[in-house]
Specification:
The chain is α/β, with parallel strands linked by helices. It has a single domain, classed as 3-Layer(aba) Sandwich (UDP-N-acetylmuramoyl-L-alanine:D-glutamate ligase). It is 37% helix and 20% strand. It has ten helices and ten strands. It has helices at 17-20, 44-56, 70-73, 96-105, 119-131, 152-155, 165-175, 187-199, 233-246, 251-263, and strands spanning 6-8, 32-37, 60-66, 80-83, 108-113, 135-139, 159-162, 204-209, 212-217, 220-225. A ten-stranded mixed sheet has the order 1-10-9-8-7-6-5-2-3-4, sandwiched between helices. 49% of the residues are buried.
Amino acid sequence: MADTFWLKQARDKPLFEDLLWSRPENKRHAGKLLIVGGNLHGFAAPGSAFGAALKAGIGTARVLLPDKLQKTVGKLIPEAEFAPSTLSGSFSKSALAHLLEAAEWADGVLLAGDFGRNSETAILLDSFINKYERQLTVAQDGLDYFWGKNSPLIGRLNTLSAINLGKLQKLAKNNRSSTPVLHNMMLTDLIETLHDWTSGNPGQIITKHADNFIVAAGGRVSTTPAPEESNWQIELAACASVWQLQQPQKPFEALTTAIYEYSNK
């Protein structure tokens, strides 16, 4: 395999060290991130993402939750805002106007997860992703709403999926059936697949396989030895969102450097 598109980052030596020294020093220039997620029975994902975004150096972050959580979360996360919810406590399709207004404030949006499985939430997220044009990161069960053919996770500009291998396999099955993703595939084979995948599509990917974090964007792929932990997707999605907001002209370099920072937290 040619190494021209595959870059290997050591855990203790960043590939793009200059990015570490060119971050915004003033919070006003460090980006605004809207974090969306939660349902009546869980809000750990947006809560974890909020903490990780602050740690990663975001200028300002807000959290948008279903209003059924207002009494529970209002005092825990002062930055939280609330949008209409269904009777069962998930986001209602009528939350679209509120979501779009909040997203207009932000430089980027992170669909962090804990949405639950709800048909109205599916309509909401589909409508939102079709109307919103800025940077978008999708993680956890937010990914589950976009498995279908012609998925925006693949074809939409400025879209990052922080995705485990099982979910990546489902996404590939519906959208890249000629190059399936398998749990037992060699790391080199997955690298080749993601290179091919992102060479012709604008969607970006962060995943984990064979003890490596993998970034794929614009046909370029980087690997970094991963720390031993299973619950990486939400916090890494938040860290990657921050880095990409702060380095919008260098998405591949930004995401690879986010991996370095996360791995050395």
